Amino acid sequence: MAENNRDGRRLVLTGNPVSQGIAVARAYVYGEREPEVCRRHYEPGREAEKLEGFHRAVGLAKEELARLAEESDAVAWAEILQAHCMILEDHELLLRTESAVREERLEPEAAVEKVFEEFAGLLAQAVDPLIAARSADIRDVKKRLIRVCQGREERRLSRLEQDVIVVAKELLPGDTAALDPAHVKGIVTEDGGCNSHSAILARSHGIPAVAGVADVLCRVPHGALLALDAVRGQVILEPSEEELDLCRKGQEEMLRKRSMEDRYLSRPGATKDGVSIEVGINVESARFEVPGEHYDYIGLLRTEFLYMGSSALPSEEEQFQAYKQVLIRAGGKPVTLRTLDIGGDKRPHCLWLPKEENPFLGNRALRLCFARPELFMTQLRAALRASAYGDLWLMFPMAGGIEDIRLAKSYVREAMARLEEGGLSYNPHIRLGIMVEVPSVALTADLAAEEVDFASVGTNDLTQYVCAADRTNREAAAYYRSYSPAMLRLLEEVFAAFGERNKPVSVCGEMAGSPQGAVLLTGLGARKLSMSPACLAGVKAALAKITVEEARALAHRCRQLKTQEEILDCLGVGH
Ligand code: PEP
Ligand code: MG
Fold it and tell me: What contacts 538, CB < 8 A, 6 or more positions away?
C-alpha cells in the first residue's frame, strides 16, 4: 500500500497488521537479495592486484564462516557452515575463478558471480537429489563471497546486539529459524499475507508485524528510527515526539490487556457456562517451552523444522529422537505430528525441488511424499517408532480426497510391517488423521470422516484454496478471506460431519488463535482449537466471557450475512 504522508524524512507507510502490537526501534534492513554485480572488466596491468583482492576475500569469507560455526550451538548449522568453508577450498572452483579474473579481466565479484553460478547451474541438473541440493550451498557461498568482495558487512538475525525492527522483502522459514526473538521487536515485510509463514512465526513469538508494505526496502534506510503500529498497520519512519508518545501509550494499553488475559493462561479452556473447549498448541521445534498447564494437546507439530535449516535430509534416527523429545516434553498429552509439508513456499536446502509455475497447486506436502516414497517412509518409520513413547497422532497435510487418504494409510501399514520385521516397537493403534485444507476434502468431509480417526482444519490453506488467493501474495491479500460466508458454511459442515461420527476435529489454522475467530469457531461447532502459544491467553479469556448459546447465536447471525466485511463487523473485528 502507498505512502500517505511525507514531511521532511518522516514517512508513513501502510500495510497489513499480521501480528498485533506496537514497537519503536531502529530499522534492521535484512536480506541478501541477489547481490547486484555488474560484469565490469578492469583495465589491463592490474591482474596481480585483482587476484590478490580475490584471495583476500576468500580468506575473509572463510574466517567469517569459521567464526559463525564456532558461535553456533546447533550441530546441523555448524555442519552447513563447515561445508561452505570447504566450497571455498574447492580447487577447481578457485582455479576457474582466478582464471576469469586474470584472463577475462573480470572484477573479482563479477568472476565469482559467473563461475559460481555456472557450477551451481550444473549441479542443479544432477539426477542425484543430494548432489542437486548442493547447488543451493554454492549459491549461498557465492552471495557471501560477493558481499565480502564488495566490502559489505553481513547482517544476521540470530545475534543482534540491540533491539531492532527487521525490515525485509519476506522472511523465509530458514531466516526465521535463526531469528533472535529477544532483540527483534518488530517485523515489516514487503511481501507476505496474514497467514504467510513469517506472519505465523511473528505471532508465535508475539512480535508485532506488518506485511505487504510496498517498497519498504527502498524507502527505509538501515538504522533509521521506526515506530511500528501493528494494530493500525502503520510504519512511521523518523516519527515525531507526539507519535512516539502515542506509541508508548498504545504499548502500555496492550501490556495492561495482556496481563489481564494472562490470568486465564493456567485455567482450562472453557466457555462461561463451563463447556470445555480443548486448547492445543502449534509447535515448530523439538525444544518448545510451554508449561503443561497452559495447553491440553499439541494440535500441530510442524515437522518441517527438521528439514528447513539443514543441508542434509534428516535421518530416521534424527527424526525419531526429535519426535521422542517432543512426546516426552508433552508429558503424555496427545501430540499431532503432521507429516512433511514442504513445497509451496517452503523449499528446504536439503532437498532440490524443481521450480513449478504454481507451487501451491503443485507437488506439495502429501503429494511430494507420494512422489518421493523414500522420504515418506523414513519419516513414517521415525514417527511410528516414536509412537511407543507417548500419545502420538499422525496427520497428513493436503489430503485432497479418499484416494490420498487410502494411499497414505497404505504407506503407514507398510512402514509398520517393516518395523515389525526389524523387531522395532510402535503403537499399532496410532490414530491416523488428515488436515482439512483442500476444498475437495472439506466438501466431502462426511466421506473423509469415515476413513480417518480425526481431522484438523487448516484454515490458512483452506482459505487460500477456497478463495483462490495465494496466502503469500500481498496483491491478493484483499481476496484472502478467512471469514467469508463460503468459509463459514464449509467449516460448519466439516465440524458437523466429524461430530456426527464421533471423530475429533480440531482447528489448527490461525483463525483458532484469534479471540474472535475462536468464539466464532466455537459457535460453528468446534470444540478443539490449536494455536501459537502466544495466543493461548487471549483465546482462553475470550471463551470465558461467552456461553456456548451466545457463541452459537453469534455464529448464526454471521451465517446470515453476505460479505466478510459484514461478518467481521458482527464479530467486532476492525478491518
Ligand atoms: C493451515 O494451513 O492452516 C496450517 C495450519 O498449516 P500451515 O500454515 O503450516 O500450512
Ligand atoms: Mg497448511
Answer: 261, 513, 514, 515
Give the least confident one: 126-140, 275-289, 414-428. 126-140
Range of the domain at 84: 47-149
Q: What is the DSSP letter of 94?
A: H
Closest ligand 1 atom, residue 508 Cα: 5
Q: Is 343 in the pocket of ligand 1 (CB under 6 A)?
A: no
State the CATH number of the domain containing residue 174: 3.50.30.10
Within-domain flag for 253: no
The residues annotated as belonging to the active site are: 197, 508
Does residue 77 surpass a pLDDT of 80?
no
* Residue 196 shares a structural domain with residue 295: no
**Residue closest by Cα to atom 8 of ligand 1:** 460
193 lines ligand 1 (CB under 6 A): no
CATH number of the domain that residue 316 is part of: 3.20.20.60
The ligand 1 atom at the shortest distance from the C-alpha of residue 437 is 2
**Bridge-based pairing state of the strands 505-507 and 431-436:** unpaired
Residues measured by CB to lie within 5 Å of ligand 2, the ion:
437, 458, 461
Is 437 touching ligand 1 by the criterion CB < 6 Å? Answer: yes
- The answer on pLDDT for 170 being more than 70 is yes
User: Could you tell which of 436, 437, 487 is best to mutate to test the pocket of ligand 1, judged by most ligand atoms within 8 Å of the CB?
Assistant: 437
Identify the nearest ligand to the CA of 199 by its number.
1
Are residues 54 and 98 in contact, defined by beta-carbon separation less than 8 angstroms? yes
Q: Is the predicted pLDDT of residue 343 greater than 70, yes or no?
A: yes
The answer to whether position 495 is within a domain reads yes
pLDDT band at 4 (very low <50, low <70, confident <90, very high): very low
For the entire predicted model, the pTM comes to 0.77
Same domain as 563, residue 468: yes
Q: Is 304 in the pocket of ligand 1 (CB under 6 A)?
A: no
Domain-ending residue, one of 189, 208, 242:
242
| Cα 35 to Cα 134, 139, 140, 171, 421, distances in angstroms | 20, 11, 11, 17, 52
* pLDDT, tens digit (0-9, with 9 covering 90-100), for 306-319: 887 676 789 999 99
Residue 432 Cα to ligand 2 middle (Å): 17
Q: What is the pLDDT of residue 74?
A: 54
Domain count, the chain: 3
Tell me, using a 6 A CB cutoff, whether residue 508 lines ligand 1. yes
pLDDT at residue number 3: 43
Which atom of ligand 1 has the smallest separation from the CA of 464? 2
564 lines ligand 1 (CB under 6 A): no
Query: How far out from the chain centre does Cα 246 lie?
Result: 31
| Ligand 1 atom at minimal distance to the Cα of residue 461 | 2
Q: Residue 505: how many CA atoms within 13 Å on its side-chain side?
A: 30
Determine which of 113-117, 154-158, 299-303 has the lowest per-residue pLDDT on average.
154-158
Where is the domain boundary, 111, 126, 149? 149
User: Do 405 and 461 lie in a common domain?
Assistant: yes
**pLDDT for the residue 206:** 85
Q: Same domain, yes or no, for 327 and 223?
A: no
User: Both ends of the chain: CA-CA distance in Å?
Assistant: 15
Same domain, 145 and 171: no
**Per-residue pLDDT averaged across 455-465, rounded?**
97
254 in a structural domain: no
pLDDT value, residue 464: 96
Give the Cα separation of 535 and 514 in Å (integer).
7
Above 60 in pLDDT, residue 208? Answer: yes
Amino acid 73: pLDDT: 54
Q: Give the residue, by CA position, lying nearest to ligand 1 atom 9.
A: 302
**Ligand lying closest to the C-alpha of residue 193:** 1
CB-based contact 338:392 (threshold 8 Å): no
> Domain check: are 392 and 519 in the same one?
yes
- State whether 136 and 231 are in the same domain: no
Report which protein residue has its CA nearest ligand 1's atom 6.
458
